[in-house]
Each structure stands twice: as C-alpha cells, then as structure tokens.
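Example for tutorial group B:
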C-alpha cells in the first residue's frame, strides 16, 4: 500500500492515493480535499502500468516544484514493478534516477533479494553511490561473506572498522584458516586492541602458538 500527499501550503490540493492489489487487479483509491474541507472519494480499477505512470509523474512533479518525495512513493513503484515482473524497467528507473538513491530504497532492494536475486547487487551499487561503507560491510558480514568484507576494507583504507565484529564472525564460522586470515589481516595493520579483543587474542595464541609475535 502507498499514499501520495500533496502540499496545501503551496497551493496544491491535498490528495491521498492508496494502491492495493487484489488478485491481478490494482485498485486506486483517491481522497481529494477541496478548499471547503469537503472530501470526495472515488475509486477505479487500473492497470498496474498506468498506476506506475501516475506515481512516477507525481514524483517528477514534486521534484519540479522542489518538494520532498516521501520514501513510500518509491517503495510503491518498486513493489509494483517487482510484483509484475518488470525487472528491466526497475533497472531503468534506478539507472536514470527516476527512483532516487537513498538508504530506505537500498534496504527495500535488499529485502527483495529472495524474490529477485539481482536486487542484492542493485542495493550494493546504491550503497556504494551513497558512500555508505558501514552498511555495505554489514551486508557482507550478515551474509557471512567475510573475505569479501575484508577485500572491501582493504580497498577503502580510509574507513574505520571494528576488528571485533570480524573476529566474532570468524569464530562462529568454526574454520581455523578463516580465523587465522582474519586475525592476521587486522594484526598486520596494528588494529587488534588488546582490551576489546582479548578473547580472540588468547584464542589465536592457543590455536597458533608458533605465530604469536614476540
């Protein structure tokens, strides 16, 4: 469900648009409030393509008048495209910034990965454009892609990371070679803090006594 609101402060009528799906039909319900504060409601069954066109045009109108576009408008557009298998159009909307980059949109794309796997990469690309390095690392770590996360850290030497988060995951993976690689990665960069990482310093010493620095 999505809602569209106009702005009375700039002379626009207050309009609310709600869209929902029932089986294969998309229903558009519009509530329009005029200057006398009377409200008229009407509804119409619409083809989803027409509904997408309406919402996109509304977004363009808001941008033209320098009004903020609420995140649920982009959410509505993306959901309509995904539900109707319009993946190519979704890629176009993202490429040409019809759907603007934002953390909210990136998170929505991540949530759609099980439905449309390429949405994962679309989300990562958006996070990169937003320079949301912390969120990118969290995505990698949440999926257990610890080596990809290390590669990202290595290629972005100016970002600050906590070795503890990596070491915790490395221990959970229960693979000595992975734990060794992760520990050495941060140890070589003098990033292992003895206070916060004491548990993993001791673990490393117990697993690899011959590798302990003198």
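The residue assignment follows.
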């Amino acid at each position: 469900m999505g809602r569209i609101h106009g702005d009375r402060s700039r002379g626009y009528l207050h309009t609310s648009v709600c869209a929902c799906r029932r089986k294969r039909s998309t229903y558009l319900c519009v509530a329009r409030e005029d200057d006398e504060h009377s409200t008229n409601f009407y509804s119409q069954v619409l083809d989803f393509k027409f509904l997408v066109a309406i919402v996109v045009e509304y977004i363009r109108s808001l941008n033209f008048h320098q009004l903020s576009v609420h995140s649920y408008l982009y959410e509505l557009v993306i959901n309509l495209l995904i539900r109707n298998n319009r993946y190519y159009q979704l890629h176009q909307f993202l490429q040409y910034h019809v759907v603007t980059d934002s953390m909210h949109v990136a998170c929505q794309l991540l949530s759609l990965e099980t439905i449309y796997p390429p949405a994962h990469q679309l989300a990562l690309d958006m996070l990169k454009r937003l320079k949301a390095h912390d969120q990118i690392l969290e995505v990698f770590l949440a999926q257990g892609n610890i080596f990809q996360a290390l590669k990202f850290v290595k290629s972005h030497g100016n970002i600050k990371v906590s070795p503890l988060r990596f070491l915790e995951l490395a221990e959970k993976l229960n693979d000595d070679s992975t734990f060794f690689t992760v520990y050495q990665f941060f140890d070589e960069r003098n990033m292992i803090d003895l206070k916060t990482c004491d548990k993993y310093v001791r673990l490393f010493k117990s697993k690899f006594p011959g590798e302990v620095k003198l």
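The CA atoms of residues 56 and 160 lie 38 Å apart. Compare this with the pattern of hydrophobic and polar residues in the output above.
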